[in-house]
Amino acid sequence: MNPLNFNTRAIREGYRTTGEQEHSEAIFLTSSFVFNSAEQAAKRFSKEEPGNIYARFTNPSVDAFEQKLASLEGAQACVATSSGMAAIFATLMALLKTGDHIVASRNMFGTSIVLLNTIIAKFGISVSFVDLSDLDAWEHSINSNTKLFLLETPSNPLGQVVDIVALSNITKARHILLAVDNAILTPALQQPLALGADIVIHSATKYIDGQGRCLAGAVLGNEAIIEQVHGFVRTTGPSLSAFNAWIVFKGLDTLSLRMNAHCANALILATWLDKQPTVKKVHYLGLKSHPHHLLAKKQQSGFGGIVSFELQGGQTAAFKLINATEIFSITANLGDTKSTITHPASTTHSRLNDDEKLDAGITNGLIRISVGLEAVNDLINDINKGL
Ligand SMILES: *Cc1c(COP(=O)(O)O)cnc(C)c1O
Which of 16, 47, 64, 279 has a 20 to 30 Å separation from 375 between CA atoms? Predict the structure, then answer.
């Protein structure tokens, strides 16, 4: 479908100018658009003539981002949103109705789970949670009213993976939509639509911006699906701002360079951690010891930038290490040029009770690192002080 390579499209796709021959894309900071005549206004509103009306519906900076991301994900269409959560919420609200049923991965971003259990539940849409990698569990959770599967692969922080092709064989036979949150790998490392998914969701806040500057999100899929999601966004208002669209548009220029560098640093750090006597276990998909290494190698073109490891000394040792680091930012955020370090059991996963933590593999000695783009030797030396 796309004759140009990924990096060329990441830099050239979506380019448009104001007519002033600027080389870098302009930011269209306008809430509304004017018409040449009353007749043109009428034609725009009746959709007889395509074109901009109002920035809650469309904006050239937002269009440029949508067009470029759609090209990189191999999608027919894309709608951008003000954040990743807005993208997930818009998808569910646009495509589902009261009485429908969702099967979702237990191993998802915490706020996605909260969204399903609280706000979505309030609208009479029920949810069953399953272990991400357990294909039988997905299949056995299907009811007559199941409309959508929702998941992230790989999961965070432990890097579990599900076979997207195998799962899509299950959903396609039952006319269930398969929605994959691809924020952790981005299209530079995994393209779920090509593997059989129907919908890709992004928090562009993470690696697509990649530099911690703004919130943004996106939903991708075929034209019929995206038209519905766009209709929801246009009517309810979680549209992406032109300024933030421009930031994430520019982020895409360097996406694959950055993702490859995140992967390279993560592999070196994980390999080193694996040799340290006070480290009990390292969870990184790039290590051959990871139970999902081969599956990840099959469906991803890289293992990503998230490394988790468990210390012998439990929470005391974990806190000591985190506090001893001087380079790492202590924050639960991820997907930044800056490396970040967090203790999942007391932060991102603190809502889980002890049994749920045990199930999810979130031990008190577990530390999660989002490996940034600093020199990896400096990162290793920084961690070594705290071990
Ligand atoms: C951060 C994140 C989200 C939520 O995105 P926001 O932009 O913070 O709203 C959703 N999914 C995943 C996998 C994330 O990491």
Answer: 279
- Are the CB atoms for 336 and 372 separated by under 8 Å? yes
For ligand 1, whether the C-beta of 109 sits within 6 Å is: yes
**In this structure, what CATH number is given to the domain that contains residue 261?**
3.90.1150.10
- In 3-state terms, what secondary structure has residue 40? helix
pLDDT in tens, 133-192: 999 999 999 999 999 999 999 999 999 999 999 999 999 999 999 999 999 999 999 999
pTM exceeds 0.85 for this model: yes
Examine the domain organization and report whether 340 and 232 are in the same domain.
no
223 shares its domain with 238: yes
Dihedral of the CA atoms 285, 291, 293, 296 (nearest 10)?
Answer: -90
Q: Which of 230, 254, 278 is the last residue of a domain?
A: 254
Q: How many domains does the chain have?
A: 2
The pLDDT tens digits of the residues spanning 97-108 come to: 999 999 999 999
Mutation test residue for ligand 1: of 83, 109, 215, the one with most atoms within 8 Å of CB: 109
Whole-number Å distance, alpha carbon 365 to ligand 1 midpoint, is: 24
How many angstroms separate the alpha carbon of residue 155 from the centre of ligand 1? 12
